[in-house]
Specification:
Helices cover 43% and strands 16% of the residues. The protein is of the alpha/beta class. It folds into three domains: 267 residues, 3-Layer(aba) Sandwich (Rossmann fold); 127 residues, Isoleucyl-tRNA Synthetase, Domain 1, CATH 1.10.730; 38 residues. A five-stranded parallel beta sheet has the order 5-4-3-10-11, sandwiched between helices. Helix 3 runs antiparallel to helix 14 and helix 11 runs antiparallel to helix 12. It starts with a strand and ends with a strand. The structure holds adenosine monophosphate and zinc ion.
C-alpha cells in the first residue's frame, strides 16, 4: 500500500519509502512549555497524531520521538526578544523549573483529552544538555562554528544550500526573518548554538560547557535529541509551517554539517490555524486554549473533529460559528453510529471481501497525503451500506477510528456523576489554580460554577484542590 505525503524539501507529493522496510523513524518538534498550548499548536499535534496513526494503519511500525523545549528560549526564532521561560516565571511568580513542569503536564492533559497518543520517546531539552554540548563540539571540530562576544555561532556560509528547505534565496530568507542586527554575527542568518553571554542578568537555567557557563540555542536540541534516539538518518520530521524558514532550516544545516550526509528524507509541515482577526500567538498572550473551548460547551473531540475536516496543508480559519457547525455535524454522525451500535447483535462477519474493500479504500485515502475528508466519506459509505450487517459496520467504524480517534462508537462526551471525565475536571482545576495565582478571581469563580453545573464541587484544602460529586 502506497503512502504519499507532501515533502516540503522537494515541493511535491511523494511516496514514503522507509529506510528500513516496514519501519518509520518520526521526529516531531514538541511544545515550548512556558504557557498553555493554544488551539493552533494543538491543531499541529492533531495532524501529527493522524499522520502517525495513518502510517500505523497501513502496517508501518512508527518510532516517534518528540522533544519538550523546557530551556528558556527567546521569543523570536532568530535569537531576539525576551526569554520565554523567564517571562512565564515572572508572570506567575514561580521558578522556571516549576513553570516548565506545570505547562508540560498541562500539555499532556490536553493531548489526552484530544486522544493524541504520546510519542514512544518524549525528551526534555534540560535533560540532554550534554548531548547538545557534544554535538556543538563536533561542529566546532569540523570548522562550522565561531565564537564572538562569548557566544558560539553556526556559520551558515560554511553549509551550502542553507535555504533549500524554505526554497528561498538567502536575501529572501533574511528579509523574512526580520533579524535584529547582531553585530557579532558574520552573516545575519548565522545562529547561536551556545550562549554564555546572556543579555538577561537573571538567567537561571545555566550549565557548564567548554565555552563557559551558559545555555544552548534553541535549534540544537532537536538535532541532538533526534540523533540520540533515532540515529543520524530520519524518515519523517514534522512541525508547523512557521518552523520552515528558521528552526528547521537551522536544524538541517547543523545536522547535515555534523554527519556529512542527508539527514531527513521527508519534511512534512502543518499549516496554521488562524483567527478571523489574524494569527494566534502564545507570546502575545492573545490565544484560545482547549479549556476555553470546553468551558464554552464544546468537547475536546469536537475540536479534534473540527481539525480533521480540513486538509493539514491548508490554513484553517477558526471561529466559534464554524466550530458549532462542525459540532452539530459530529453529533449527527455519532447519533447515526449509535443506532448501528444499538442494533449490533454480534452477528457473524460474513462479508469479509466487502470489509477488505472498504479498508483498502480507506487506506488509499489516508495514504493520499492524509485525505481525511475523503476518509470520512468512506466512513459514511459504510454507515449507509445496505449489504453489511451491524456487526460488520461496527467492526469497520472501530477500525477507521484507529486513525480518527474520535471515540465514534462510545456515545456522547458528557460529564455527569455517572460518567466522570477526571481529565477534564483536572484541566479546569489547573486553570482555576492559575487564575487564582494571578488573582483573577472572576475567572476562578467562573470555573467553580462550570463544574457546579455538572454537580461537581471543588474543595480547597491544604493539600490542594480536590473535587467531589454533590
Ligand atoms: P511552540 O510551542 O510555540 O514551539 O509550538 C508548537 C507547535 O505548534 C509547533 O509545531 C508550531 O509550528 C505549531 N504552531 C504554532 N502556532 C500555530 C498555529 N497558529 N496553528 C498551527 N500550528 C501552530
Ligand atoms: Zn524542533
Amino acid at each position: 500500500m502506497k503512502f504519499l505525503v507532501f515533502n516540503t524539501l522537494t515541493g511535491v507529493k511523494e511516496e514514503v519509502i522507509p529506510m528500513e522496510e516496514g519501519k518509520i523513524k518520526l521526529y516531531t518538534c514538541g511544545p515550548t512549555v512556558y504557557e498553555y498550548a493554544h488551539i493552533g499548536n494543538l491543531r499541529t499535534y492533531i495532524f501529527e497524531d493522524v499522520l502517525k496513526k495513518s502510517m500505523e494503519y497501513i502496517g508501518l511500525k512508527v518510532k516517534h520521538v518528540m522533544n519538550i523545549t523546557d530551556v528558556g528560549h527567546l521569543e523570536s526564532d532568530s535569537d531576539t526578544g525576551e526569554d520565554k521561560m523567564s517571562l512565564g516565571a515572572s508572570r506567575e511568580k514561580k521558578t522556571v523549573w516549576e513553570i516548565a513542569r506545570f505547562y508540560e503536564d498541562a500539555f499532556f492533559k490536553d493531548c489526552k483529552l484530544l486522544n493524541i497518543t504520546e510519542p514512544i520517546i518524549v525528551c526534555r531539552a534540560t535533560e540532554h544538555i550534554e548531548d547538545m554540548i557534544n554535538f556543538i563540539k563536533i561542529l566546532e571540530d569540523k570548522g562550522f562554528t565561531y565564537v564572538a562576544n562569548g557566544n558560539v555561532y553556526f556559520s551558515i556560509d560554511k553549509y551550502p544550500n542553507y535555504a533549500k528547505l524554505a526554497n528561498l534565496s538567502l536575501e529572501e530568507l533574511e528579509a523574512g526573518s526580520r533579524v535584529d542586527i547582531d553585530p557579532f554575527k558574520k552573516n545575519p542568518l548565522d545562529f547561536v548554538l551556545w550562549f554564555t553571554n546572556s543579555k538577561f542578568s537573571n538567567q537561571i537555567m545555566q550549565w557548564e560547557s567548554p565555552w563557559g557557563t551558559g545555555f544552548p540555542g534553541w535549534h540544537i536540541e532537536c538535532s541532538a535529541m533526534s540523533m540520540k534516539y533515532l540515529g543520524d538518518r530520519v524518515d519523517i520530521h514534522c512541525g508547523g509551517v512557521d518552523h520552515i524558514p528558521v528552526h528547521h532550516t537551522n536544524e538541517i544545516a547543523q545536522s547535515e554539517s555534523a554527519v556529512g550526509h542527508k539527514w531527513v528524507n521527508y519534511w512534512v509541515h502543518g499549516e496554521f490555524l488562524v483567527l478571523d482577526n489574524g494569527k494566534m500567538s502564545k507570546s502575545s498572550g492573545d490565544f484560545l486554549t482547549l479549556s476555553r473551548l470546553i468551558e464554552e460547551g464544546y468537547g475536546p473531540l469536537d475540536y479534534r473533529h473540527f481539525c480533521l475536516q480540513s486538509r493539514y496543508r491548508k490554513p484553517l480559519m477558526f471561529s466559534f460559528e464554524s466550530l458549532t457547525d462542525s459540532q452539530v455535524a459530529f453529533k449527527k454522525l455519532k447519533s447515526r453510529i449509535k443506532n448501528i451500535v444499538d442494533g449490533n447483535t454480534n452477528e457473524e462477519i460474513i462479508n469479509k471481501s466487502k470489509i477488505i474493500e472498504y479498508q483498502d479504500k480507506f487506506a488509499t485515502e489516508i495514504g493520499n497525503d492524509l485525505n481525511i475528508a475523503n476518509a470520512f466519506t468512506v466512513l459514511v459509505e459504510v454507515i449507509k451500506d445496505n449489504i453489511l450487517n451491524n456487526t460488520e459496520k461496527v467492526y469497520l467504524i472501530e477500525d477507521f477510528d484507529k486513525v480518527f480517534s474520535l471515540n465514534l462508537t462510545l456515545g456522547e462526551e458528557i460529564i455527569n456523576s455517572d460518567n466522570i471525565d477526571e481529565e477534564y475536571i483536572q484541566t479546569l482545576i489547573l486553570e482555576r489554580n492559575k487564575a487564582r495565582s494571578e488573582k483573577n478571581w472572576v475567572r476562578a469563580d467562573e470555573i467553580r460554577n462550570i463544574l457546579l453545573k455538572s454537580n461537581i464541587e471543588l474543595v480547597d484544602s491544604r493539600d490542594g484542590t480536590i473535587w467531589r460529586i454533590i
